Amino acid sequence: MKNFAGLKGAFVDYNEARFFVLPVPYSTQNDWNPMANRAPEAIIEASQYIELYDTETRKQIWQKGIHTMEPLYNLNSDEKVCDSVQSKVAEILDLEKFPVILGGNRTVSIGAARAACSKYDDITVVQFGAHNAMRVNYKGSEYSPECAMYHIKKLAPLVQIGIRAMGPDGERNSDMAKMFFARDLFFDHNNRWFNEVYEVLTKNIYITLDLNVFDPSVVPAVSIPEPGGLEYFTVLRILKEIFRRSNIVGIDIVGLCPDNNNVASSYLAARFAYQMMTYKGVYNYNL
Questions:
Q1: pLDDT digits (tens, 9 = 90+) for 87-110
Q2: Number of Cβ atoms within 10 Å of the Cβ of 121
Q3: How many domains does the chain have?
């Protein structure tokens, strides 16, 4: 697998790089679209073509180094992927690097959140996604993507943004006061929900983002293209303010199901990953 953004030499150095990209190509046949296991490779391939000067912040964060780790292959069960991702993300955090995990399906997020919540106190997990993923069990697995947020909520306070679909366990297992539905964001012309989101943030934040948080007109190549999603700049606006207000300790990006006939989705995911590194560098590292 190539290096993220095609970087070479000193800019991918294990010891010096500030950002670590961890590819986790995992999905199962239980997924409606199991092609998510190709997502990390597709995102990294698309990253070869992104421009590395950020027009918003006027920064070139790649100069601080982006190390692309070896993918986590041979993960043949939901439990194994949770444990393996937790171990690898804990290693990244112990090095005081910023992890950007590229999944795979949402099961990948469980292990990453475990590592972050074990490392940091006063931490909240912020989920961006279409589905609140609060099932207790799905098709015989307690750790399927549909159960991911049920487990993460046990680790730390959970804020959910962009939700527009819930399973039968959704309302019972969720903190509805910290759930921000996409339809409410859409119809709130006074932007009251912005302040409501930021009021529930803590000192440290871990972000998990399923690309189905975006409307299918923006990112169609996802596992379940739920209608009524958010626009690109709406998501960036929320995230930028979160980065400004809190210490973001890591992020995972999951849910892409690459489509060779629609490379725009893969490109957006790559551009988005780089934008998150930029926000981290500008607002948390003061680079």
A1: 999 999 999 999 999 998 999 999
A2: 9
A3: 1
